[in-house]
Amino acid sequence: MNKNLTWKWAVIAATLLLFLFGIFGIPKDWTGKGLLASITDRIHLGLDLRGGTHLILQVQVNDAVNVDSDNAIARLREDLRTKKINYADMTKPDPVNHAELIVVKGVTPDQSSDFKTIVSDRLPDYDVTSGAENSFNVAMKATNLSELKKRAVEQAIETIRNRIDQLGVSEPVIQEHSLGSYQILVQLPGVDDPARVKEIIQSTAMLEIKQSRGGPYSSEQQALQENGGVLPPDSVLMPAKAGMRGDREAGEQWYIISRAAAVSGRDLRTAEPSRDENGQPAVRFILTGDGGRKFYSFTSAHVGDYLAVVLDNKVQEVAVIKEAIRDTGIINGRFTEQQVTDLAMTLRSGALPAGIKYLEERTVGPSLGADSIKSGVRAAVAGMLAVLIFMLVYYRWAGVNADVALILNLIILLGFMGFFGAVLTLPGIAGVILTVGMGVDSNVLIFERIREELRNGKTPPSAVEQGFSHAWVTIVDTHVTTIVSAAILFIFGTGPVKGFATTLVFGLAANLFTAVFVSRVIFDWILGRKQRGEALSI
Question: Which residue has the higher pLDDT, 366 or 154?
Fold first, then answer.
């Protein structure tokens, strides 16, 4: 047996110090409150312990389909006009339930072949089939429709995550909700203003700069009357933001706006809070290189015309184009400082591809979290003490070995969580308690094997050697299978389940080190201090 245990004790001491640092870091205050604050700074508490907001959102994926089909209609109209193919009407008969379907009526039979060729070349994601009375049905392919909806959910998750990250929420959970179609689960621990967060999440913040072709009008009817009952081609009526001109008593206002945008939020490089020429809060935006070139080309061709800044399908500002503008602009209005900050943030984080509907909202108060922490910690401490006492009574002095290994196991587990910034949830506390049980199980396997070898007449050193070597395979087998199960829970589970799996995996990894390596070093140290033939207390 190797009597030189110096390097092994050094490894154990270094491990202990390393993971104590993982738990506490370098405390600014060495009092009890200071140490507790250091722990909570490094080991984050989940929603069920810290309190916060739990939301389930429904992505209105048909909005994304409508945007795609609207763009398809615009491209198709332009190409038909270029190719001089006549048609009577182009509409979406059911934009609510079947936004992917476009019906084109009045194409003459001699031009039908050219029409199909244009659709095939310019709209590769769409199929065209013949309808009744010289009409054609242009519908998005099923695979492309499914991919578009899935992509809308993924983009919504990424956009919401960007916005929440800029709010500084610690350890948020933002992921697809597996219990419903096109749903997103959002959990925000420690949120103190859920109303503001909900508003920021739901805002589409889609910036568009379009040509203003008429207005303001006091109503939709007035706009139609002054234009002969028909809007100009490729134009839409759009409401203005309340009090856009600084007069909140003016009532609603409407503008005729071009359907196509000169530039949009996709051409945005950044946005930041600023001031307008009157010193009022405003948002300054900067376009990308391509966006700047498009904007310069558009404004150069429309000097003297009016430009409308559209945000979330409402006109925010209308101004005359006095000269060509390249890549910088100002969005002003009756904004507060907070509104300017939030608007700049949502513009930077990108536009949601579709609207959001709230299906479920729950608020967990911090008092409930505090009660959960107290109950969970009380259960963990009680269970730990019961196990420590049992090991001492049943295995005598060898029980001290097991108790030291269990305490070090707990330190390593919490240190792991501190280093990796893991989130501790109520199920995570249950995982800690289960880890203690697994640690005891490993010690029992080893100790019972040592007892069996001693009963068979082996000397204490030989019994310890045989006990560890024979129990090793069983310990590794049980730990690996449990780690695999916990990994599956982590991959497919939601927040609380992931918290349980995380603590269980960390704890099992620590247990392999403490139950086998640390316990063996302690046994070797004890045996090295005994006289030859002296009995082992186990």
Answer: 154
Q: Tell me the pLDDT tens digit for each residue of 274-306.
A: 887 788 888 888 888 888 888 888 889 888 898
Output phi, psi for 104, to 5 deg: -115, 120
Residue linked to tokens 């963990």: 380
Which pLDDT tens digit goes with each residue over 197-221? 777 776 655 678 889 999 899 888 8
| Cβ–Cβ < 8 Å for 117, 137 | no
Q: Are 221 and 259 in contact (CB under 8 A)?
A: no
Residue partners of 319: CB distance under 8 A and separation at least 6: 306, 307, 309
Kind of pairing between the strands at 263-264 and 254-258: unpaired
pTM over 0.70: no
Helix axes 194-202, 337-348, angle to 10 degrees: 50
pLDDT score for 246:
47
Residue 182's CB is within 10 A of a number of other CB atoms, namely 18
Going from the N-terminus, what domains does the chain have, and what CATH number goes with each? 3-51+365-529 (1.20.1640.10), 63-144 (3.30.1240), 203-361 (3.30.1360.200)
Residue 114 Ramachandran class (φ > 0 left, ψ -120 to 50 alpha, else beta): alpha
Integer Cα distance of 519 and 12 in angstroms: 11
pLDDT in tens, 59-69: 989 988 987 88
DSSP 61: H
- What dihedral do alpha carbons 85, 259, 308, 305 form, nearest 10°? 20
Euclidean distance between CA atoms 175 and 106, whole angstroms:
46
